[in-house]
Write a structure and sequence with these properties.
This protein is an alpha+beta fold. It folds into 2 domains: 109 residues, Ribosomal Protein L22, Chain A; 100 residues, Ribosomal Protein L22, Chain A, CATH 3.90.470. It has 7 helices and 11 strands. The strands form 4 sheets. The protein has a 4-stranded mixed sheet. A hairpin with a 2-residue loop joins strand 7 and strand 8. Helix 2 runs antiparallel to helix 3 and helix 5 runs antiparallel to helix 6. The longest helix is centred in the middle third of the chain and has 22 residues. The radius of gyration is 18 Å and the shape is globular.
């Protein structure tokens, strides 16, 4: 498994933006051009360029077909699964030999009602087990990123209700269960990124040690 992230600055100048677009596929350039804000365009282009780097592919050569629920599949890399996520300052990409999902979330204030609507009782108990508001918010995003990474690995999109499964986080890490308490045959890992972001990866099999390479945009561009 290969996992990497790129940190995107608040402002990306014209020169670096044009260099970024020049290194991705025409399909991705067209998608980037539909965004209103440059930072969103940079994120979508950086995601593909990060995937190219992990695969060792030539610039602009990746092509995709789309499965049910819109999940993209690499055409020229049979047996390789990938997933991309972006939030806050980071874009994250993972490649694996089995279906895999990754999710990064910027930690920011959230309405408590969202946890009531989306989390199971055990997950809300994990959140409320600390009186420190900052830690409680961190736990919310640990759970959210873990749940999103599982949904993305399975590939069911928004058709899978967040309360239909449970993420249990303890001293020995995280695990997945059905709402009835039965173990699910998926592994999930919460990974350190920084204090302002939560990151999780999920697959049917994960390596014991997961290396995360974090790049700057200039490093991704090859400066």
């Amino acid at each position: 498994m290969k996992l990497a992230a790129v940190r995107i600055e608040e402002t990306v100048d014209d020169s670096r933006y044009e260099r970024l677009l020049a290194q991705v596929s025409a399909e991705r350039r067209a998608k980037a051009g539909r965004f209103k804000f440059r930072r969103d365009a940079v994120r979508t282009a950086a995601g593909e360029l990060l995937l190219q780097r992990l695969l060792g592919a030539a610039d602009g050569t990746l092509s995709f077909r789309y499965l049910s629920h819109g999940k993209p599949e690499l055409i020229d890399y049979p047996g390789t699964w990938h997933n991309i996520s972006h939030s806050g300052e980071y874009v994250v990409c993972v490649c694996h030999e089995v279906p895999v999902g990754v999710d990064v979330e910027a930690v920011r204030p959230v309405d408590d009602d969202l946890a009531k609507r989306c989390f199971a009782d055990a997950e809300r108990m994990y959140m409320q087990a600390t009186e420190e508001e900052t830690q409680r918010l961190r736990r919310f995003y640990e759970l959210w990123s873990a749940k999103e990474s599982y949904i993305k690995a399975v590939g069911d999109g928004l058709s899978m209700p967040l309360q239909s499964f449970v993420v249990r986080i303890g001293m020995d890490g995280a695990r997945l269960e059905t709402a009835a308490g039965e173990s699910l045959p998926w592994e999930i890992r919460l990974l350190p990124l920084d204090a302002g972001h939560a990151l999780a990866v999920c697959a049917s099999q994960l390596p014991p040690d997961i290396a995360l390479d974090v790049l700057s945009l200039d490093e991704l561009l090859g400066s």
